[in-house]
Amino acid sequence: MRDATKFGAETTASEVADGIDLRGKVVLVTGGSSGLGQETARVLADRGAHVILTARDVPKGEAVAAGIRASTGNPRVEVEELELGSLKDIRGFASRFLARHPTLHVLVNNAGVMACPQSKTADGFELQFGSNHVGHFLMTCLLAPALLRGAPSRVASVSSRGHHMSPVVFDDIQFERRPYDKWRAYGQSKTANVLFAVGLERRLGARGVHANALHPGGIMTELSRHLQPEDLEFLRTRTRGMKFKSVEAGAATSVFAATAPELEGRGGLYLEDCHVAAVNDAPDALDGAKSYALDPTNAERLWEVSESLVGERFAFSA
What is the DSSP letter of 6? Predict the structure, then answer.
């Protein structure tokens, strides 16, 4: 029996979703062809949701979807191609999605890159900020009409404790005037994920679309593909022996954000280990959210910057 008071770091996604009925709900999970996205999609499909997962590698995504359909007995699991590093591709995806799915109940912004070598998106943005934040910002805003029609609906953005590594450096987001640091770039993008939840909640929360951000925990997935041995040592030192989670436990907070009755009507929050995290500005903090990541002034500034980067202003209508 589901008991949210006992949820913690070792709780699995399946335990979080126990007893929750998602039949009739449409769910979109970005980056659903591996790791946390795959497990998130599997658990939500197991609870009866119609799940659309995105992948850059469609054949790989189709194989994952087939496995989810077989293991859950739910035939309503689909794959859509999406490249979050291309504004043109995102707009094409959103147009296709809305034509097929006019209503959306849950959006899990899961896809991301971490600590990669310096590179740019197709539109010239620093890769981590561009893919982790800008791509999801544009996609979510374009899909907002479907979320409004599906209200009460939810947007869950996978951030990270890595947001402790850097605020959004508004004076030089693209590392044009400072040396590129892959960890600061990652941290900045993860802070942006939290601020986006704050900004989206301000705009859509009163209309029944609630947005939260979350830290899944430390998990070794394909997200870690760019890490070198010295990077892993850096993480071990910085986190002072942080325990890594299983994928099943890592997906738990995403599923909590997407489904938990305890979050009904709540948004603009930062979640970890299946609960709402407190602000923690201690220099050596190992948990909690930095206040700069939940600051509404920062959220509004980021929203304005993001609209400028994508060349579009959003006045949401159902």
Answer: G
d(CA 102, CA 88): 20
CA distance to 42, 154, 197, 245, 284, per residue, from 303 (Å): 32, 19, 10, 33, 29
Q: Within a 10 A sphere around the Cβ of 158, how many other Cβ atoms?
A: 29
Q: Please determine, for residue 278, whether its predicted confidence score (pLDDT) is greater than 80.
A: yes
In a domain, 317, yes or no: no
- Contact by Cβ (8 Å): 18, 2: yes
Q: Of 180, 186, 270, 292, which is the active-site residue? A: 186
Query: Phi/psi of residue 285, each to 5°?
Result: -60, 140
Tell me, yes or no, if 186 is annotated catalytic. Answer: yes
pLDDT at 108 over 90: yes
Residue 223: per-residue pLDDT: 47
Which CATH number goes with the domain that contains 153? 3.40.50.720
Specify the residue for token string 């430390």. Answer: 218
Q: Provide the number of structural domains found in the chain.
A: 1
Q: What are phi and psi of 121, to 5 degrees?
A: -75, 175
Q: Which helix (H) or strand (E) holds 60?
A: helix 58-72
Q: How is residue 221 written in tokens? A: 């997935």
Task: Give the contacts of 20 (CB within 8 A, at least 6 positions apart).
Answer: 2, 47, 259, 261
